[in-house]
Amino acid sequence: MRVAGVMSGTSLDGIDVAVVELRGRRVQTIGFQSTPYPRAIRAAILGAATPADLSRLSFQLGELYARAVLRATRRFGPVELIGCHGQTVYHEGGAHTLQIGEPAVLAERIGVPVVANFRARDIAAGGQGAPLVPYVDYLLFRHPRRTRIALNIGGIANITAIPPAAAPEDVVAFDTGPGNMVIDALAGQYTAGKLCFDRDGRIAAAGKVNRALLDELLADRYYRRPPPKSAGREQYGAEFVARLKESRLPLRDLAATATVLTAATIAMAVCTRAPRNSDLIVSGGGVHNPVIMAHLAAFLPGVRISTSTDHGIDADAKEAIAFAVLAYRTWRREPSNLPSATGARRAVVLGSITP
């Protein structure tokens, strides 16, 4: 079955579409495209405050998702099903979550069924509603003899720990803390809106890490709380950035400190789950930030670091691929959350289908 996976993450950088061929457990990526969000849409998502804002945005995003999928299918061929994560506008793990991007618009424009609203059923079953990609990490990266940690550095960073020859119930996954989100916000302010991310880590590289501020940030109990746990813009959005700016440090120093915070909290999490000589397989936008990657290598000298691209899965496309796989499982009425990752009472079929 050919499925399009549609992902727009907490970084708000745009819409990723992966076209995937699925046969049983076999996953073949046919193609991948990314479409940046228009500046006005990105600003509207960040500024949405009323039911009218969210309702209007949900339909606008449905149209944008449809255009992105049509663009992909013109290039890579038609699909039979779409899995759309939607844009998270609020997430409180274990309590409630909201992703917008009207699936009815997408189904109407493309003419195929759409699976959406993946997180709600896991929360209803007692889980965090995140992370949901670990099932796909397990499918793609399990190894008979090596411990593997799949790391995604998006707006939020998360890991999936897969022991050698693991069964699904052996997999542990959780959000480690900030990924690119804080760095992106600081880069936007540093460049007066010209950039929405720190290209090649240049801003951080030009700054100095403030150890006192870093130690204060690392004292947050979240980083030592045992999983299951999840995080989002609620923890690392505008209020967090405003707190950093209260230090009155130069923005480039804040970017340098935030970059180390991302790497350090990832490393803390990896060290709790990975023996020496484990594999760390990195995906997401953070793989393109050499400063983050260098800090990770320094913090984790006994870990072999590679990217998912090195394993045949495009590092930028992995989460879009994952939601294609999750949609396929839902279409087949098969569970695809991992209770060991989310804390749900049981494995459940995720999402709602718009025919």
Sequence of secondary-structure elements = EEEHHEEHEHHEEEHHHHHHEHEHHE
Shape: globular
CATH class of the largest domain equals Alpha Beta
Annotated CATH homologous superfamily of the largest domain: ATPase, nucleotide binding domain
The share of residues in extended strands comes to 15-25%
Low-confidence stretches: none
For the record, the CATH architecture of the largest domain stands as 2-Layer Sandwich
Task: Provide the residue-averaged pLDDT.
Answer: 96
Report the sheet with the most strands, covering strand number, pairing sense and barrel closure: 7 strands, mixed
Describe the structure concisely for a colleague.
The chain has helices at 39-47, 51-76, 103-110, 118-124, 134-141, 181-190, 202-206, 211-218, 233-236, 238-245, 251-273, 290-299, 318-331, 339-342, and strands at 2-8, 14-23, 26-36, 81-92, 96-100, 114-116, 148-153, 156-162, 172-178, 279-283, 304-307, 352-354. The chain is α/β, with parallel strands linked by helices and 355 residues long. The longest helix has 26 residues, at 51-76.
Could you explain the architecture of this structure?
The chain is an alpha/beta fold. The protein folds into 2 domains: 2-129 and 318-354, Nucleotidyltransferase, domain 5, CATH 3.30.420; 134-311, Nucleotidyltransferase, domain 5, CATH 3.30.420.40. The chain contains 14 helices and 12 strands. The chain has helices at residues 39-47, 51-76, 103-110, 118-124, 134-141, 181-190, 202-206, 211-218, 233-236, 238-245, 251-273, 290-299, 318-331, 339-342; strands spanning 2-8, 14-23, 26-36, 81-92, 96-100, 114-116, 148-153, 156-162, 172-178, 279-283, 304-307, 352-354. The strands form 2 sheets. Strands 1, 2, 3, 4, 5, 6 and 12 form a 7-stranded mixed sheet that branches. Strands 9-8-7-10-11 form a 5-stranded mixed sheet.
